[in-house]
Amino acid sequence: MDNYELQQPIPLRALNEYCFCPRLYYIMYVDKEFEVNNDVEKGTELHNKAEQ
CA-CA distance, 6 to 45, in Å (whole number)? Predict the structure, then answer.
């Protein structure tokens, strides 16, 4: 891990995931394993529409 990575802010969602379950945080943000399901796809679509 270089100095640049150490200086990056922690996304609030990541901090929330860690507080809820450190193991889940590790799986999602360190191992980068995340299952995309219908709810995730719909949420992504809604966020993209809101950003336009």
Answer: 31
